[in-house]
């Protein structure tokens, strides 16, 4: 899986580099009434992309952290419930299968009519 992830990141990096090389023309951006900025087109596009990506990425990370925390709490609660439901092993022994058969005579006797 790590190999596939690395290949994808390499493809994204090559695509961004090709985009930057092909779109290096300077663009004038009017920021306020008399303030202008001349910058390459690719810088504007990458900044616009990051402006949209970063808030969504932060929301995704927060939700993932919240769900992971809930899962860990549920797993702890399940482990505690299993520990409380399991018999104590100190001083007690579970019956063997032969003792279980002797304790239930209806299973040990042949069925009626034979």
From TrEMBL:
GO terms for cellular component: plasma membrane. Residues 81-114 are annotated as: Disordered. Keywords: Cell membrane, Membrane, Transmembrane, Transmembrane helix. It comes from the Bacteria. The keyword Membrane applies. Pfam families: LapA_dom. The keyword DNA repair does not apply. Residues 23-82 form the Lipopolysaccharide assembly protein A domain. The chain crosses the membrane at residues 40-59. Signal peptide: none annotated. This is Lipopolysaccharide assembly protein A domain-containing protein. It comes from Tardibacter chloracetimidivorans.
